Amino acid sequence: MVFGCESIMNDFRSSADSGKLGHSYLFFGDKGVGKRMFAASLANFLETGDFRFGDKNKTLIDSRFFIPDEKGIISIDVAREIKKFLSERPFVSSKKTAIIDDSHCLTSEAQSSLLKVVEEPPAHALIVFIAGSAEVLFPPLLSRLSKIYFPRMPSPELEKILTEQFGIHKKTAHNAAIRSFGRIGEALRVLQVENADDPDRQNKTENLTQWIENEILRLRTENLRGSSGRILRLIRKETECGRFNLNPSLQKKAIADIISK
């Protein structure tokens, strides 16, 4: 799925439909803003006509991702493999698409080799470089690429996407949007890690918040002497539960101490 870069999607759709899609691009921007997913969605669009690409196990016939090896480099041998792949005619897509992830890992020899492909690409070839910054590629190669910047999105916009598209609870989505600084990939990673730590953490936190609210209501209703200070402390604790990823079990013990004082 493409989130936060609909204008970029519309530009590529228009270019493809009008036959004006370029042969070589650099997708750059901060880690986790959606560059890799957009590249996969673009390949899916060229092959199926649909920009939605939500199945990680889906295999595209005319597209390939190329990533660094165990040494953290993309070698001249991989560059040759990319050239061979792009020389083949596509089966179902209008383009044979090579996506080079973490292109800052390309060796100087690999970049020189790919420069020749970028300068004289096969008519059906599309090559996409993905990087955090445009400066990671050497100037001769960089100067021949169409550069597409992927920005971070405003936190309220990211929060809305997390709640409406992924079904995340509003407070949890708000926290993830703030902690990820507007990067949807990072927000989803944060949520995945939290769920792996405790699959029921979200429900527990929501239940804890409700429990605090019930205790505040009880203290107000009973109007016990000295309850105002306890209510203020409970309100602060409720705010903390909404802002931070607190352990519900430990917090409940702490709140019990507040109520008993």
UniProtKB/TrEMBL annotation:
Pfam families: DNA_pol3_delta2. It comes from the Bacteria. One of its GO terms (biological process) is DNA-templated DNA replication. Signal peptide: none annotated. This is AAA+ ATPase domain-containing protein. The lineage of its organism: Bacteria, Candidatus Joergenseniibacteriota.
